[in-house]
Amino acid sequence: MNAATELIQSSMPLCVTLGITAVEAGPEQVVLELPWAESLCTTGGLLHGGVLMALADSAGATCAFLNLPEGAVGTATIESKTNFLGAVSEGTVVATSTPLHAGSSTVVVETTLQVGGRLVGKTTQTQNVRRPR
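Given the sequence above, the corresponding structure tokens read:
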């Protein structure tokens, strides 16, 4: 297991449950992957939208965490908007997150979801910057 996968799976156990692994995790870009599995589908063998949103949220949260300002201790999603642009009935979904804004109180991240280079979703999310109490 690579260090990036260890980071996401240890900090977000749902990634283990869903089978999400990391290809890359750095402040400029986070890339996570999720292979299609029948157990994650809805009617007709289509990957469930909630699973796709969980993948996007996991990638975005990791990107936000890696862009936290000094003194911050974590992040929490406070807003997330996903547009689904295509169904997923096979293959591996690749989530690529990049920061749009890294401020002192919020981090805004954009995530694309692709299968074989085909765009199937786009997510924009805002993460709250958590400080010690």
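The longest helix spans residues 49-65. Try to locate this feature in the token string yourself.
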